[in-house]
Amino acid sequence: MKGPHFAVCSIIILAVFLVAGPANAITGDEIMVKVDAVLSAPTDGTSKAEMILIDKNGNTKERRLQVWTRYFKDKDDWSLTKFITPAEVRDLGFLSLADDKMYLYLPAFDRVRRIASHARKESFAGSDLSNDDLSTGKYTDHFTALIQEETEKEYVLELTRKPGSNRIYPKSVVWVNKENFTIPKMELFDKGEKLWKTFEGEYEQIQGYWTMKNITMTDVKKQHKTVMKIEDIQFDVGLEDNIFTQRYLKRRVKVD
Amino acid sequence: MIRKSSLLFAVLFLGVLSLFPAQEGRTESYVRLGGTVKLYTSVFTESGEGAGLFPHKAGDFALTRAELWLKLNGYASDNVSFRARADLIYTADTEFNDFSDIEAGSGFSSEVQDFDINFQEASFKIMDLFVPGLDLIVGRQRVRWGTSDEYNVIDNLNPVDYANLYSFDPDYFVRHEPMEGFVLEYLFPVDFEMKVQGVYFLSFKTSPLPEGFGSFLALQQKQALDAFTSSLPVDLPPGISSVQVEDVPDYNLENGVFGIRLSGNVLNFDVGLSYFHGHQTLPLPQTILTDLTGEIPSVEGFYGYPGLDVVGFDLAGELYSVGLWAEVGVYIPEDTDTVVLVRTPLFDQEDRFPLLNRPYTKFTVGFDYTFGIGEGLYWNVQFNRGFYDEFSYSEEADEALGLDRSGFLGKLDDYYLTFLEYSFLSETVTLTFNFLLSVAEYEDFSSNNTWLLTPEVKFVPYDGTSIEIAYIAFNGSSSTKLGAFSDSDLVYVLMKAFF
Questions:
Q1: Which of A219, B201, B248, B351 could hold A128 in an S-S bridge, CB 3.0 to 4.6 Å?
Q2: Cβ–Cβ of B323/A118 closer than 8 Å?
Q3: A255 located within any domain
């Protein structure tokens, strides 16, 4: 199920949303093609993120991340995520490449480990995001979309995981803004088709791209949520391809 | 020839460095200090008066150690980074046997103040040296090869720290000693997943050994001597045994350690091909001299560190979402003979034979998978053929010295490892269940296996700290390496704060 994945992905990797005009007699799959297009509109981007984990009693934990992303129109995006805080995970890194290649850098062991796609199910750093949410890929490669409902401002789509896809959400319901093809809301379901997580996103236009600034991912089952605030966003900065390698995954992060 | 190649590598390396002009780099200096404060303490939960090297009573502390790890890293410029780590270690030792233990020195004996500083790392890295993609790392460092978890049969550049292996502190499990030298890495511009890495460490370094290791070797020799003399038709008193280390490679260019590894991605699998040249880091018998000409029989063992080459292959990837890895190391020991000399009043007998088979193989294979239960139940399974301290001894060596046995410095055993890990409450609590089975012989399985069971719970009450409690249960034949710890079950607590 790709819906949640993309929503979170766009949050974390500063997926960008371009303004697009409304469409007539459009299908669900065509809508998601447009969503994919705006997600991967920039050439590249960098950002910092503050991740706040909130349990059902209101207790909080904070993590800070730095993210580099390389966008592609015709293949999976690349992303490199490094932890800045807390101290025990500082410099921990996560590299997501095309063809489901994922690597984890463990600074305590100074070691890069290949992660198989089964690890998509695991929570990312204790948050309500999974590794699947952090990986990169196009919605249309992994999901089929059907329009459930159409309002004046939004399409409501049901996304169903394609056979053979390893995405962890088999089904999701996605709200797509008709004006700019952003995703303000998603509901993500588990194998038993029970509601698992909800996603909400707030957007701003930065350098001409619609950009996720705040997201809230709530695990309905655990009554736990993760709030992410994206800062210092810059697009089209000319990131070189060799940044998305194990060589850079091991680099220490400079903290301002 | 091989030693000459080591020298040649060093000369070529220095020559290449001198050929290139300096490059301009932006000076944007950045420094960060961090580290860990740690307390590890373990307590025996059962008595083991006859438990091999570590006789104890239930309730005895096995090891208590407080540590401060200081880590400094940063950037001298955009292309030049550095890192250093110093560990300050205090080991509590409360075994006071007499007044000298507490009166020695300037009021503080080593028994009371057992303090060490371990300089773990001090290196700097220059990225894009001369050409894009070429990196140079200089200094005291650890270079890890291999794709499998924890244990890598091709990971031979840095010697294993056996002194702390039996501390059962997870931070010291198969820890490798850092070495001083150079690493050159080149990332191919046409394919960023293809990399060649050359490593040159300035000199050979032995593995740190556990306290009492010399006595352990001497005891083994004495047992063999007494068994031999008791088989003779004359009545001889118990023998004496001594151990000497000789043939330690000199500290010079010729005895540097070097390796080269080419890695890339083939069919979505990460693969690597490597070559290591160095020395054995554990002392192996060069000459065993048994003397029956005196009143008291004696045996002297002369140990050394012969050369070693290892050709390695490693692989990591996935099939149907299951993570897979494999490593094979083809070990090619130096072609030297061990001498066993027996002197008697009537005659001298000398046998010469190769100590180790040439070549022999160690390998490891494993897989992992995450079940979609809660926040993910992680399962890891691995099989290892041969641990770091194990060798494939020749038939002649076994006949003459009885080396083809299990135990430390023994033959290649099989190890089956598995663990399950589950985190919940946003990784506030992590439960881990480890199981290890070592098998020395399958034919007489019941008396040639040992298992080790370790349930662990890790608790993170706040960011920046962790508390880990584990129980380690041993059971098995005392003839195996881990079986020596039967009757030595223990509980440990490991507490850390990070800054």
A1: A219
A2: yes
A3: no
- Quote the radius of gyration of chain A (alpha carbons, Å): 17
| Percent above pLDDT 90 for chain B | 54
For all residues of chain B together, what is the average pLDDT? 86
> Any CB–CB contact under 8 A between A126 and chain B?
yes
β-sheet bridge partners, residue B333: B308
The distance of A194 to chain B (nearest Cα, Å) reads 14
Average pLDDT for residues A203-207, to the nearest whole number?
94
Task: Count how many residues are written for chain A.
Answer: 256
- What residues make up the domain containing A176? 3-249
**Residue A256, in any domain of the structure:** no
Whole-model pTM? Answer: 0.85
Domain tally for chain A? 1
Closest-CA residue of chain B to A243: B192
CA distance A113 to A131: 14
A62 and B463 in contact by Cβ < 8 A? Answer: yes
pLDDT digits (tens, 9 = 90+) for B441-498: 898 888 888 999 999 999 999 999 999 999 999 888 877 778 778 888 999 999 999 9
Distances (CA, A) of B142 to A87, A89, A110, B119, B271: 22, 20, 9, 12, 21
Segment (H or E) for A174: strand A171-177
- Predicted pLDDT at A21: 41
Strand arrangement, sheet containing B348-354 = B240-245, B298-304, B284-291, B337-343, B348-354
Which of these ranges, B97-101, B228-232, B470-474, has the smallest mean pLDDT?
A: B97-101
Domain ranges of chain B: 2-17+34-498
CB contact under 8 A, A118 and B427: no
- The yes-or-no verdict on residue B37 having pLDDT over 60 is yes
Nearest chain B alpha carbon to A129: B375
Q: Which helix (H) or strand (E) holds B399?
A: helix B395-401
The CATH number that applies at residue A225 is: 2.50.20.10
Burial of B441 per CB tally in 10 Å (0-12, 13-18, 19+): middle
Give the one of B74, B192, B322 whose C-beta lies nearest to A242's C-beta: B192
What CA–CA distance (Å, rounded) separates B453 from B419? 10
* Residue A177 resides in a domain: yes
From the list A110, A117, A122, the residue facing B321 with the nearest CB is A117
Residue A27 main-chain phi, psi, to 5 deg: -95, 170
Asked whether residue A254 is assigned to any structural domain, the reply reads: no
B78 touches A: beta carbon within 8 Å: no
Does residue A256 sit at the B interface (CB-CB below 8 Å)? Answer: no
Q: Which of 2.40.160.10, 3.10.110.10, 2.60.40.1120, 3.40.120.10 is the CATH number of B2-17+34-498?
A: 2.40.160.10
Average pLDDT, stretch B65-82?
Answer: 94
Element (H, E) at B15: helix B2-19
Question: Mutate which of A102, A114, A253 to disrupt the B interface (most B C-beta within 10 Å)?
Answer: A114
